[in-house]
Amino acid sequence: MGRADPEEGQLPAPVKPPDGGWGWIVLFGCFVITGFSYAFPKAVSVYFKELMKDFHVGYSDTAWISSIMLAMLYGTGPVCSIMVNQFGCRPVMLIGGLLASSGMILASFTTNIIELYLTAGVLTGLGMALNFQPSLIMLGTYFDKRRPLANGLAAAGSPVFLSSLSPLGQVLLEKFGWRGGFLIMGGLLLNCCTCGAVMRPLDMGMKRKMEKAQDKYEAKEMLPIGGKSEEGISTTDGTKKAKKAKKKPKKGKKLLDFSIFSNRGFIIYTISKFILVLGLFVPPILLVNYAKDTGVPDTEAAFLLSIIGFIDIFARPACGMVAGLKWVRPHVAYLFSFAMLFNGLTDICSARASNYTGLVIFCVFFGISYGMVGALQFEVLMAIVGSQKFSSAIGLVLLIEAFAVLIGPPSAGRLVDALKNYEVIFYLAGSEVVLSAVFLAMATYCCLNRGKKKEPPPEKNPSAGGGSDTEEAESDVQEAEEHSSDNHQPTHSTDNAVVAASEEANHVAEEQSGEGGGCPEGDGVVLARDGRNADQTVERDSF
Known about the structure:
There is one protein chain. This protein is mainly α. It has 2 domains: about 15-220, Growth Hormone, Chain: A; about 255-450, Growth Hormone, Chain: A (Up-down Bundle). About 75% of the residues lie in helices and about 0% in strands. It has 21 helices and no strands. The chain has helices spanning about 25-45, 50-55, 60-75, 75-85, 90-105, 115-140, 145-155, 155-190, 190-195, 200-220, 230-245, 265-280, 280-295, 300-325, 330-350, 355-385, 390-420, 425-455, 470-485, 490-515, 535-540. The longest helix has about 30 residues, at about 155-190. GO terms for molecular function: monocarboxylic acid transmembrane transporter activity; symporter activity.
């Protein structure tokens, strides 16, 4: 009673985001998932030196581990979107947590670098992808007004986990070796299953409340009131049958919505993100090895990532709060462009850092700019496509970014092997990030804002429900006539009023015609609201 029948093809109505409540639990789960997804590929770089010794490989070979993780995180976006649209966020996240954990556990038993690619790279990366994307989708359904702040707080999980996983990885490496460290890391990834369990669909709780309220209302309506109980029941049954007959046939839900490619803003955003990802992840992935090559002890080298993470912790929520301001939120794309420009200039200006102090300064500014980029990237995408198409949009964007992830860090590793110089890498990565910032700002201004200015304002159509007093009066008269015809009751008082008003109007018109010295024929005739004269109206109403 009071429930929609799924067999009748009625799609669930969108539920208003609560901007709180259980949403804070969902936000915490998204915080943990984001931390593992983004920090884990960087924290694994702590083990690269030992892997190079055991497997006799170079920088570029070990860099492929992080690249494959990130490529799976991005490249499986459409697959994840299809699974979420088909099965929901919670089951997909539970499966993803199991895959991520099993991948790291199996990686601890590998005997060559190829097996490490398949386990730690492919399997763990796929598991994290099946957790990361659904968590962002759930966050967008639970928050609307506070969405910039929620995105900033969730994105803060990346620096928090980065500042903790890197020192933890160094401790595990010294005590248990890289195999023991991978095994323990796999156990930690089981927490992704816990986060997936709290991702309760928003419409479930709201539907239960609505069903209870509807049941109570229908129970009151079904109570017998005098002799009209049977008539009320039969009327209710007839209304339900009529509603069922009018219901439309079921429309299949799209597993992946490609119509978003008709959105110019989405195209601009996608191109900009592709260029950005080419250089964004290169400095943090190669930073630890760069510091070790310059003579920095291993523990202090790993601490550099912790500095980036610590600064990033405060940069992301702060940037989310700024993006949520009323005068900033409409221009969030430009704020995102500034964040990318800041990050790229930081890479370029810090390319000549050759001591530990210079690397620390670089980490401070990189943490600020990197936090701004992380807090704004998905907020900008949600603002462009909306929450309804976000699940498909993020999947397609991540797929396109996956190609950039596969190109960026491995290419940088090959350049390090060939040139033995990190300065060129920082210049190249910074230039790519600056290019993406300039492209996004210029394209947004030229293609979007100018296009809106050139569009002429829509002309007011009086016949389209405009808002003139005459039309409102006509609609009121029509509603009154329909109401009177439905009730089948004579309205003598209304008829008398119409007759009196029409006679008075004719009398005034005759006086005006006499004083004006003659007027064209027909000017003294008073027309009714529906275009007929008053006599016709009186004659009609007298019946």
